[in-house]
Amino acid sequence: MADDVILEVNNLKTYFNTDDGIVKAVDGVSFDLRKGETLGMVGESGSGKSVTNLSLMQLIPSPPGKIISGTALLNGEDILKKNEKQMREIRGNRISMIFQDPMTSLNPFLKISTQLEETITLHKKAGKKEAREKAVEMLDMVGIPDPQRKVDNYPHQFSGGMRQRVMIAMALSCDPEILLADEPSTALDVTIQAQILELIKNLGRRLGTAVVLITHDLGVVAGNSDRIVVMYAGRLVEKGNSSDVFENPLHPYTQGLIKSVPRLDQPGKNRLYSIPGVPPNLINLPECCPFYPRCGQAREICKTAYPPLVSIDNRDVCCVLYGEASHDQP
After folding, report:
1. Who's near 195: CB < 8 A, 6+ residues apart?
2. What are phi and psi of 233, to 5 degrees?
3. Residue-range domain boundaries for the chain
4. In the CATH hierarchy, which fold is given to the domain comprising 5-94+176-265+273-327?
5. pTM for the complete prediction?
6. DSSP structural state of residue 253
7. Is the pLDDT of residue 325 over 50?
8. What is the end-to-end Cα distance of the chain in Å, rounded?
9. What is the DSSP string of 83-134?
10. CA 95 → CA 15, 66, 88, 104, distances in Å?
11. pLDDT digits over 62-113, tens only?
């Protein structure tokens, strides 16, 4: 593991047993996270982004879900081998998560102060006075006005944007090494989205926290990520520096995602592009490229074998167009 790598995930597989068959929600995902960086994780709904990060926190409901294999080395320690007691020490303390929906993430029956102080008291062994001071400090840091008074409000007294700020404050209250932000701006209007994303980016830099920003919107990660991981059907299809991926996407799926983003520099009469077809059913997927039915560059080999992950132009891409198989005739 390199000196600046704080988290290294290798061959992570998380499956769900259902009445209809095995859902391979995450099927051999590998990536690393460096200190202080923001890693964007993008893909359509059902691509495995959230399940990947819930697996790292060991929050997969079991049954039906199960982590089949893989390692996740946090500063050299495999957190997937930790028991529940050990994971409670890690969650919120070393790795924190902002969940998708700010409207339902907070307990509606408890004051904000109670929910913030509980986290600080549990992980930092702080007294009640110290925990309250830290809670007020965190609310002030994330831009909640009049935090001394607002800390004793209930969640319903906050707007959606303010609740998301509270969730960020809670996630960062114990100075975690890693923040997993699962679609942190999905339920918010565009103006508040921009504020929340800017807040996460600035706090990450200020506190030195590494951030995994999970989203289906490439526009969100464009200016907020150092590197990008693109996922499709439970697998990684491309990863690299954000600027490289946006300027020269390699995988046909990444190309399709970028073409689907509305452009202000194009005539308004142009029809918005959408990737043809629909994502595959993840139950009992065949051992071939899952994107080939939707791919305009598919070859015969795509229907018979899953392409290997190859390195090219400082990027990793999973496509026969860039491997040895690219010399085969279509």
Report:
1. 143, 161
2. 55, 40
3. 5-94+176-265+273-327
4. Rossmann fold (3.40.50)
5. 0.87
6. H
7. no
8. 39
9. -HHHHHHHBTTTEEEE-S-HHHHS-TTS-HHHHHHHHHHHHH---HHHHHHH
10. 23, 20, 10, 21
11. 889 999 999 999 999 999 999 999 999 899 889 999 887 767 788 899 999 9
